[in-house]
UniProtKB/TrEMBL annotation:
Protein name: Uncharacterized protein
Amino acid sequence: MFSCSKKNSNSNTTPVLPSSQNSFYVGEVKPAATKSCFAGAYYRKLVSSVDTWGGIGGRVVLPTIVFDPARINPAKPAQFLDNPSVYMGGNMGNQETDIGLTWEVIRDENGAVTADRRAFRPFLRRTAHGGSGQVALYENAPAEASYYWYQGEEVLMSVKIIANGILRLSIEGAGKKFEKDFEAGGYTFAGKGEFKRVNAIDQVANEGKPVQATKTKVVGAEWKSSFLYRMVNGTLVETPFHDGRYTDMRCPNTNYFSIFSTLENRAKGGEKIEIYGAGY
């Protein structure tokens, strides 16, 4: 469902932009020039180097969604086969996590679960982890109005290690807040790993397969800023997720994305993002 760090044979290439020329920590590992795309979704991902990072965060305006009316889910006719998401996560100790917001069903004012998807709701996903014996897990926030976010709302989202084997998701904005501690055995203060932020059009039952043609688009998403947490002298410190700290991925190909950023934007991990399945 979500874009993990598994690889296929298609390498992702992106336009080379002038760097914001930000500084680095002594000994900081630089990110890879390119990474391979994992098939199954249209997604914009920024991913860090593998280093002593302890999490990621950022402030984002949630996108507006225009669904392709031809892409109805035959199993759930009130829903579509395309499903936007905005999320974070990473890979540490050979355990992948996808944690953030996905377009979901809700409970209406009468307590009934809607047939169609109506709001962004928090989700937390991890793969299995051999070292701790953890099995793969996926869960949503409770279906309550205080945990629904809507198109165009601005949220501050973060995922960080708060204890060995424990990640904390925090989402706050538009007068609402969700916070959840999530067991992920691969994530430790002493470990090295990578963290990411992702804007995606996921596709139902399509993980690992070529993307399905669609006219669905998501517009108006904007990262005002984003940052990494780094372990410095035993403390997690926020540091800008500037363009010298990430691999720029636009999958499965650059032509599905419209990205606008300035040097000032990129110095603080910011950009505007549109994704269009029919291409630009």
